[in-house]
Each structure stands twice: as structure tokens, then as C-alpha cells.
Amino acid sequence: MDGVSKLRRFWKTVNIIQNDKGYQILLDERPIKLPQKTELYVQSNLLAEKIADEWKKIGEQKEDFFSFNDLPMTQITATMIEKISPNPDIYIDALLPYVNGDLLCYFAEQPKKLVTLQQEKWTALIHWIEEKFEIKLKTTQGIMPIMQDTEVVEIFKNYLSDLNSIELTYFAITVPLLGSIILTLALKDKRITVQEAFDLAYLDEITQAEIWGQDTEQQAKLNKIKIDIQDGYNFYDYAQSE
């Protein structure tokens, strides 16, 4: 987040302890507290290690400056603990519009190169998701909105409702970045990599840059999006580990 205030490092040591609540990260023996004053606990030793590494690295020395942008695993974990876990229905409702608006269901009309690439690269994933959920998705060319069958929306709602807090946090972060529940699911199921998910989601922008040349400002935005996608996936991967 640009414009976020810089803070000063106030600790020298970072340690991890384990108790009956899980793993906790201590800064000079004081627990990390989240924005709503909740103490940070995680159930995965690997995620705890990654969070601790962030706090060890930022600023390097006491009194050095840092921002919360330097703490992606901490930020995502805080979102899960203080926002998503207490209110999962809010986030499920926010994700459901992507069933009708999934990027992969809206094929381009031009240029020809983009149309061909989308047909080649998107269609297989559409068929995969249709087989996975035993559904038939509507697709279109252009931007006119389409409405999937009510049964399709209900199937995705049930799927999202069955996710645990870690999985729902991953979806809440990744679906808006990719514009696609299908791509988010394919990445979660390891059918595609983070790089492939990014390339498929931003096929239009990548193709336009190849045709017309690269825009420096847009490329910087895309690079940031790719990092955010990687962070969301890393959180899911780390948090699912023992």
C-alpha cells in the first residue's frame, strides 16, 4: 500500500514459542499484536518461521524504518484472524459475483492473436472446472454480462462455504487479483503455477504489450500484482504445512 506510514524498528530479537494456542512470535519477548490488539497465533510452524523471518529482516537494526508492506505474511495472517475468520459470510458473498464475472468466461473479439491465445489456453481450464463440479459454464465473446445457471452459482457458494479460514483467506486475496475463481482453484489444486496463473489472467495486457510495446507504468503495476499473487499462494502453502 503506497503512502503507508513508516515505523521504527523497536526490537532486537525475534523468537518463536509454542503453547496450547499454537505458535507465537515474540519481539524482545513481547507478542506481536494485530491492529485490533489480538495476539498473533498460527497453527503452522512453517508459517510462524516465515512471519518471524519478516520481522528479523525488516529494518535490520533497531531504530531503522519499515512499513507493513514489508510484512506480507503478517498482513495476510492478520486479515485471516481479525477479519475473515470472524465474518466468513461477508467474504463468500464478495466472491460470488466472480462466478458470473469470471475472466475466463469472457473471450476477446480482437485482436486475432489474443482471440487465438485465449481459445488455446483458457478452454482446457474451463473444461477442467466443468468436469470437477459436473457443471456447464456459459461463455461469451465481448464484455456483455452473462448469468450462469442458478445451480452453478449454488455449487460454487457451497464450495466456498466449505473452505476453512486459511483457504478462504487465499481465495479472498487471489480471486480479485486474477479476476477468476477458475484460475484461483487451478492454482490451489496445483494444475498451474503462480507464473502461469498470472500469464493466463493478464493475457490481454501481455499480448497488447507484444503488439504495441511495453508501457513502463503498467508493467510496474503488473509486477506488483504478480508479487501479491505469489504472497497469497505462499501464505496458503505455508499455513497448510505442519
Order of helices and strands: EEEEEHEHHHEHEHHHHHH
Q: Calculate the terminal CA-CA distance, rounded to whole Å.
A: 30 Å
User: Which segments are poorly predicted (pLDDT under 50) over 5 or more consecutive residues?
Assistant: none
Helix tally equals: 11
| Overall pLDDT confidence | 93
Our Rg estimate from Cα atoms comes to: 20 Å
Strand content: 5-15%
- Overall shape: globular
Secondary-structure-based class equals: alpha+beta
Number of DSSP-assigned strands: 8
User: Largest sheet, described in full?
Assistant: 4 strands, antiparallel
Helix content: 55-70%
**Which oligomerization state do the chains in this entry correspond to?**
single chain
Describe the protein in words.
This protein has 242 residues and is an alpha+beta fold. 57% of the residues lie in helices and 10% in strands. The chain has eleven helices and eight strands. It has helices spanning 45-57, 72-84, 88-95, 97-101, 112-133, 150-161, 165-178, 181-188, 194-201, 203-212, 216-240; strands at residues 7-8, 14-19, 22-27, 30-31, 41-42, 65-66, 106-107, 140-141. The strands form three sheets. Strands 2, 3, 4 and 5 form a four-stranded antiparallel sheet that branches. A hairpin with a 2-residue loop joins strand 3 and strand 4 (30-31). The longest helix has 25 residues, at 216-240. It starts with 6 loop residues before the first strand and ends with a helix. The model has no long low-confidence stretch (mean pLDDT 93).
